[in-house]
Amino acid sequence: MVIDNLTGLFSGRWRFLKTTAPVAPGPLFASLLDPFGGTLYRSDDGGDTWRPSDQPAGSVQVILENPTANRLLAGTLETGVLESVDGGATFAPLDRGLLSARVNALAFDPTDPGRLWAATDGGAHRFGDAAATGRCRPSERVLCLLDRFQVEVDWTDFAGVTGTGSPFPMTANTGGFSFFSPGNLEFAMKVLDGRAFNGHFWLFYGGLSTVTYELTVTDLETGVVRRVENESGGLTGGADILAFPAAGSGGEGSPSGESTAGAESSLSTVDGPLRLLDGRFELEVRFRTDTGLAGVAAATALSRETGAFSFFDADNLEVFVKVLDGRGFNGHFWLFFTGLSNVAYDVVITDTETGEERVYSNPQGEFGGLADTQLF
User: Fold this and answer.
1) Most confident option among 1-10, 38-47, 268-277, 326-335
2) Which one, 96, 181, 201, 263, has the greatest CB density within 10 A?
3) Which residues contact 319 (CB under 8 A, 6 or more apart)?
4) From CA 306, how far away is CA 182, in angstroms rounded?
5) Residue 291 contacts by C-beta under 8 Å, 6 or more apart in sequence?
6) 116-145: average pLDDT
7) What is the mean pLDDT of the segment spanning 18-28?
């Protein structure tokens, strides 16, 4: 819809806005400052004609643009900071954690242009680097995958204590989080580039913890957000091959473990079975596909109690396992495993002190996960 005259459309308090970016001639924006939320209009011809945007409710009173990152940021009176990656045609909430939903000003940090500041009625709020650049920057709570996916996890334990997961990077497209101790992996996930197959990036995830948690994955190039929740007592796991549309960022790619970001894995496989808890336990994973291909997965040690297995590509981790010493709680060792693959596989664990062996199977087509707190 194109509008010739804004004043004939609505009466009320209008604010005309121009982006601070030195782009000529530059778009002009007009926002109706309405206590019930207003629509943002954009003009690319000096105000002769206007087009409305499709945005969440909120009266925009400041606009900031980063043309090199294709980002348009809007500060509103009611709904915080909004972000557009299509020139203002559509907007989505940028982030949570603002001190107030009323945003009075936006600015890039003059000493670090990758950081965005918002002045709100509750004080100044600093966003992460990705808000300005569209590229992921890792931090104490942020895991970055393929350079464009920002991953965070919030957890709540059985006593009601809350916290944020600590990133556990593995390869360019795979990582996880620990909640309580650095070597105790609680959640694993990966993003694969499947654009050559269906035009999307694919999300795989699996839990190694039964506490409550929420995974948030943000595609910084498109603004698409996906969330996965695990309820207390459960072990979530699954895949979404339509998770993130490519949105014009290219059609090349393969759903293998290869990175599109050029990062190299710091992991290396081990010879023979995976040995955990100082060699007390040996683990092996045997897989078989629906086409009849079968084999023994390559093992990778991640920590004293945690490891992973790959079926076809060393950087494409498929099964994650951990063994914890729970003897102080119930007199047993505990086993947790989760799969980021739906092929059939068996997890075989052997207690090297007693020779006792256990086998756990995941059937074809399932994204399995298991917790056995009475292992040995």
Assistant:
1) 326-335
2) 201
3) 285, 297, 308, 309, 337, 338, 339, 340, 341, 345, 347
4) 11
5) none
6) 77
7) 56
The whole-number average pLDDT for the span 22-48 is: 68
Paired sense of beta strands 40-43 and 51-52, if any: antiparallel
Report the pLDDT value the prediction gives residue 13, as an integer from 0 to 100: 63
CA 203 – CA 181 distance, rounded (Å): 25
What average pLDDT is seen over the chain?
82
CA distances from 13 to 33, 76, 132, 147, 301 (A): 5, 14, 30, 42, 62
Single out the residue of 301, 295, 298, 306 nearest to residue 343, CA to CA.
Answer: 295
Q: State residue 63's pLDDT score.
A: 82
Mean pLDDT of 294-307: 95
Instruction: State the pTM of this model.
Output: 0.65
The answer to whether the beta carbons of residues 17 and 28 sit under 8 Å apart is yes
CA pair distance 206, 372, nearest whole angstrom = 16
* Cα 289 to Cα 194, 284, 297, 343, distances in angstroms: 20, 17, 12, 6
Cα gap 317→205, rounded to integer Å: 11
Task: Read off the tokens for 217.
Answer: 């994955």
- Tell me the Cα Rg of the chain: 25
Let me know: does 261 contact 146? Beta carbons within 8 Å: yes
- Angle at the Cα of 371 from the Cα atoms of 365 and 376, rounded to 5 degrees: 125
Residue labelled with tokens 């500041």: 117
Quick one: how far is CA 31 from the chain centroid? 32
pLDDT in tens, 315-373: 899 999 999 999 999 999 999 999 999 999 999 999 999 999 999 999 999 987 899 99
Cβ-in-10-Å burial (0-12, 13-18, 19+) of 172 comes to: buried
Instruction: Let me know: does 183 contact 304? Beta carbons within 8 Å.
Output: yes
Contact 152, 128 (CB under 8 A): no
DSSP state letter for 6: S
